[in-house]
Design goal:
The protein is mainly alpha-helical. It has 2 helices and no strands. The chain has one domain (15-73). It has helices at 6-40, 44-73.
């Protein structure tokens, strides 16, 4: 029976932690920008810029999460 490599498991755990921080930080920043944009009357194009940045961060997190999942299965 193969024993899991501790270095590989540690690397996956660090990647998962990074994904968690990116997701939490993105949500907090996105909510804050939405609130500030509404309070200060920013143009929609600036708010959409932050929306697209948040979408990019979520896609990155999804891709890395999928890679972690595939690595643990294999």
């Amino acid at each position: 029976m193969n024993r899991p490599d501790p270095d590989h498991a540690r690397k996956l755990a660090l990647q998962a932690r990074l994904v968690a921080f990116v997701l939490a930080g993105t949500m907090l920043l996105w909510i804050g920008v939405q609130y500030l944009g509404g309070q200060r009357g920013w143009d929609a194009r600036y708010v959409f810029l932050f929306d697209f940045a948040a979408i990019a961060a979520f896609i990155w997190a999804l891709v890395v999460t999928y890679q972690i999942w595939r690595s643990r299965r294999g």
